[in-house]
Every structure is written in structure tokens, then in C-alpha cells.
Amino acid sequence: MKTIKIGILGCGIVGSGVARILIEKQALLESRIGARLNLKYVADLDTTTDRGVAFGEGVFITDANTVLNDPDIDIVVETIGGKGIAKQFMLKALENGKHVVTANKALLASFGNLLVKTAMEHQVDIGFEASTGGCMPVIKTLRESLVGNRIEGITGILNGTCNYILTKMSNESCSFDKALAEAQALGFAEADPFLDVEGFDSAHKLAILNALAYGMDINLDDIHVEGITKITPMDIEFAKEFGYTIKLLAISKNSATEVEARVHPAMIPNRNPLSHVEGSMNAVTIDGDATGQTMLYGHGAGMMPTASAVISDIADIARNIMTGARHRVPILGCPQTNIRPIPVLPLSQISTPYYFRFEAADQPGVLSKISGILGECGISIKIVHQKGRRTNGTVPIIMITHLAKEENAQKALKEISTLDSIMNQPVVIRIEETDN
């Protein structure tokens, strides 16, 4: 029976999980793959911390170059993270003719085009199922299962930290800061949650999904990104009154000539299945012209769910090695010669309904002034809601608009914010009315 040798770089949470499955489920994997997966090395600078895994003699080492330069290693698993040394190690592995499996979405979103080009030049594969959606098989779904579809759009809850915080705020009417503190205490949020709560983690994932869905270069730079730090319990309560739930969404929509790509908080109707995805769970809906809507749901992070996705890539590459296949399934879903740049529609040109909240002085004529400015900017009001929730002498004025262009909405908000009767900056949340 053929033996395929594997080296892991980094033995943190994910790396430990991958090692555990390779060691503890060796017989199961062998029976399903038809080859023996041998974990030859695990390289990490810290070899003293107990990972709860029974490594064999000589497996745990400190020198990553031993893994990268060993001619017997077939597959290198990168679980270091970040865009520094991980990039150097991945490039060296590919240049040395080794297949690479990674969960590193930040690296792929920023340097994925370079990594794919290098893999093609050296006739090796890159597996990255674990980079987006944890254990949800969204990469395989786009790259293989939906190959006969023109993908028309993707909408996803792709960050468990943000989803946990928004769920907590919605269910318990607590502040963002309190919900974040609990998420950190439970291990759902990092000590520095910036990439999560400001939306960048979701943007990394969306850049990868867009490339697979539309046959385009990985393009992170043109994705509009907003986080959830400005969402308040008041806005969540008003959303409930109107039949909406607030979620941090990664959204892309495919037209004939360009792609929408944006990450921001959005109000979605309670009939939308994504509105019921709670806690740290992730979910993504994919709209294909043949299938209609497909929804995937699962743990987006965590040791074993992420390790499971890494193992799926190892298994795919192992099967390719056994048959002598190279790039049987193109890394980005279609042959490299067919990958093309597709422009991303500027945010100013998108159109959605909007939720506006203004903190207005409790005096006559304010509502008419706001409505007048919106009308002059071509924005039609669907709902106006004003309650006597007086705070520091102001009352909230809530408006839901019909479909409006972003540049018009921003123009109106800029003018409204200069009114003497408006205190603080208006709150704006886009509304995704469709069920996708």
C-alpha cells in the first residue's frame, strides 16, 4: 500500500486538530483513501506545551526547513497563520514540488494569485477548503458540485465572532462591548478582535469565494468593508419591530460585466433562513441558475471542524497522487488561462433599501426638512417611525426607504447631518430584501 508523507507547519489549535485526526483516525482514512497517510513531521517552535496528541518519536521538531527540504514529504500543511513567515514557507514548499494545504484566508486573499501561479509552475496543488466557512464544504461546492451553474450571487454569515455578538445583543439587549467581552471569555473572539468585528475576516473569505464563483482573480482591495462596532441595541430593537434581523453579511452579486462585492451589517427579513443562524455558527447561500438557492450551514471555526476541512483537502490530494493526477480540479475552479479580471462595482453605484436613524431635536419641522432633503436626492420613503424615546433632549426618527442608490443616500445623509436639529451622525444600515 502506498504511503503518503505529510508535514505540518504550526501546531496551534488547527494544527493540533489535524495531527489528532491523522494519528487517531489513521485506519479510517486508510480504508477510505486506499493509501496510508503518514505524519512524518510537525514543526513548531514550542515543543513543550501539551497538545493532547500522542506524537511518535522524532515527529515533533522545531525546524520548519526540515519539512520543506525533505524529499520524502508529499504534502505540507500550513497552519501558522498570518501573511509573514507563512507566505515564505508556502512559496518554498510549492517551489520544492510539494502540495500545500492551508486554512490561511488572509494569506490567500492577499497573495492567492501569486501562490496559485507558483503552484501551476511547479505542477502541484493547493487545498484551502478550511479557509472559508470552517467545516462547511463551500469551496468544494463552488469548485465541483455547482460546476454546471452560472453563479448569480453569494450571501454569507462568514464570521462566528460577529454572529455571536449580534445574537447576544439581539437576544439579551446588551451593548456591543458587553457581548464582545463575553465572546472573548468563551473563546469565540480573539484578544484583539479587530479583523473580525471590523469585517476584514469576512472580506478575506469573500475574495476567495468570488474567484471560485465567477472565474476572476482574487481581488480583496475592491471589496467594501464595514464592521459591526456601531450597531446599537436600539437599532436591533427597531429592526425587530419592522420584521428584520441584523447580521454581518458578505454579499456578492454577478452581472454580465461586473460583480458586487461588499461586507457590512445588513437588515434581512425574518423569513430569510440566514436570519435564524445564531451564535457562532456560519452559513452561506449560493444562487445558481440551474440549482436555485443552495444553503450550507455549520461551524465556521474551532479546532476539529477546521481540522476536518483540512483533512478533506489532504484526502483529495492523496487520491490525486495515487493516480498521478495534477490539477485534475483547477485550483480556482477553472483553468488558469480562463481566469480574468472582472471589475467590482463601486459601492456608490449599488442600490438597496435603507434604514436611517436620526437623533433629532424635539421641535416642529424637523421631519419635513429630512423628508425634503431625501426627496431632492431621489430617495422615496417607505416607512417613517417616530417615538417619544427622548434621550438627552432628542428623539429618534426612523425611516425605511424604497430602493435607492448609494451615492444618493450618502449625499442626502451628508446634507441632513449639517442640520442644526440633527445631533450626532445619522445611522445607516442597508437592507437586503431578497431571500438570497
TrEMBL record:
It is an enzyme of class 1 (oxidoreductase). NADP(+) binds at residues 9-16. Pfam families: ACT (PF01842), Homoserine_dh (PF00742), NAD_binding_3 (PF03447). Pathway: Amino-acid biosynthesis; L-methionine biosynthesis via de novo pathway; L-homoserine from L-aspartate: step 3/3; Amino-acid biosynthesis; L-threonine biosynthesis; L-threonine from L-aspartate: step 3/5. The keyword NADP applies. GO terms for biological process: methionine biosynthetic process; threonine biosynthetic process. The keyword Amino-acid biosynthesis applies. It catalyses: L-homoserine + NADP(+) = L-aspartate 4-semialdehyde + NADPH + H(+). L-homoserine binds at residue 190. Its EC number is 1.1.1.3. SUPFAM superfamilies: ACT-like, Glyceraldehyde-3-phosphate dehydrogenase-like, C-terminal domain, NAD(P)-binding Rossmann-fold domains. GO terms for molecular function: homoserine dehydrogenase activity; NADP binding. Residues 355-430 form the ACT domain. Keywords: Amino-acid biosynthesis, Methionine biosynthesis, NADP, Oxidoreductase, Threonine biosynthesis. NADPH binds at residue 105. The active site is at 205 (proton donor). Belongs to the homoserine dehydrogenase family. This is Homoserine dehydrogenase. It comes from Desulforapulum autotrophicum (strain ATCC 43914 / DSM 3382 / VKM B-1955 / HRM2). The gene is hom.
